[in-house]
Specification:
The structure holds two protein chains of two kinds.
Chain A: E1 4-6, E2 10-13, E3 19-25, E4 31-38, E5 42-49, E6 56-57, E7 64-70, E8 73-78, E9 87-94, E10 104-105, E11 109-113
Parallel strand pairs in A: 2-11
Antiparallel strand pairs in A: 1-3, 3-8, 4-5, 4-9, 5-6, 7-8, 9-10, 9-11
Chain B: E1 4-6, E2 11-14, E3 19-25, E4 32-38, E5 44-50, E6 55-57, E7 60-65, E8 70-75, E9 84-91, E10 95-97, E11 101-106
Classes of the chains: A mainly beta, B mainly beta.
Chain lengths: 114, 107
């Protein structure tokens, strides 16, 4: 079974703090994604990566950055957390090619910024 | 107009009922369609892909209507374990998720 893990299930941070969310997948998937999920808005793509050291902006990249130094690990960074970044953050991974769009999700990190 | 729209529900149905969800999409060039399931406080998981000819997997039937730009999910003989949020997902150049439809199946 594909396993996608995220470093924390719940996180509370203060406004202005730098926040790191880590995601690791164990199935050698090329593609990795970061989403946030908010009530009434669905999942929105923040950033994605098709390969090591490669990143592409999604729909809402402002206020976020990412890092992919190893194939299995994709990090989301909030340079200076703000209250409007309080949300559920979901990491996902998928194989390249025809299976590109079958995504496997991690359990999520619920981030609260106070 | 949202790119992918779903009725948020909740749909409250008794066990054994048949329930259907619709999802509309705005981009006529969309290429692939999926239904994901998300249990409360859990991550989304792929339920089924939606093919042009329609497809069935046990009690679940998915259909696509390109002319009217909607997809549907039909669940027959609902079980308590079907209670979840069902996410419609559409692929054009990227994946776009609907906000989900909540289903609650009662004894």
């Amino acid at each position: 079974d594909v396993k996608v893990t995220q470093s924390s299930r719940y996180l509370v941070k203060r406004t202005g703090e730098k926040v790191f969310l880590e995601c690791v997948q164990d199935m050698d998937h090329e593609n990795m994604f970061w989403y946030r999920q908010d009530p009434g808005l669905g999942l929105r793509l923040i950033y994605f990566s098709y390969d090591v050291k490669m990143k592409e902006k999604g729909d809402i990249p402002e206020g976020y950055s990412v890092s992919r130094e190893k194939k299995e690990r994709f990090s989301l960074i909030l340079e200076s957390a703000s209250t409007n970044q309080t949300s559920m953050y979901l990491c996902a991974s998928s194989l390249r090619g025809l299976s590109l769009y079958e995504q496997y999700f991690g359990p999520g990190t619920r981030l609260t910024v106070t | 107009r949202k790119e992918v729209e779903q009725d948020p529900g909740p749909f409250n149905v008794p066990e054994g009922a048949t329930v259907a969800f619709n999802c509309t999409y705005s981009n006529s060039a969309s290429q692939s369609f999926f239904w994901y399931r998300q249990d409360c406080r859990k991550e989304p998981k792929l339920l089924m892909s939606v093919y042009s000819s329609g497809n069935e997997d046990g009690r679940f039937t998915a259909q696509l209507n390109r002319a009217s730009q909607y997809i549907s999910l039909l669940i027959r003989d609902s079980k308590l374990s079907d209670s979840a949020t069902y996410l419609c997902v559409v692929r054009g150049g990227k994946l776009i998720f609907g906000q989900g439809t909540e289903l609650s199946v009662k004894p």
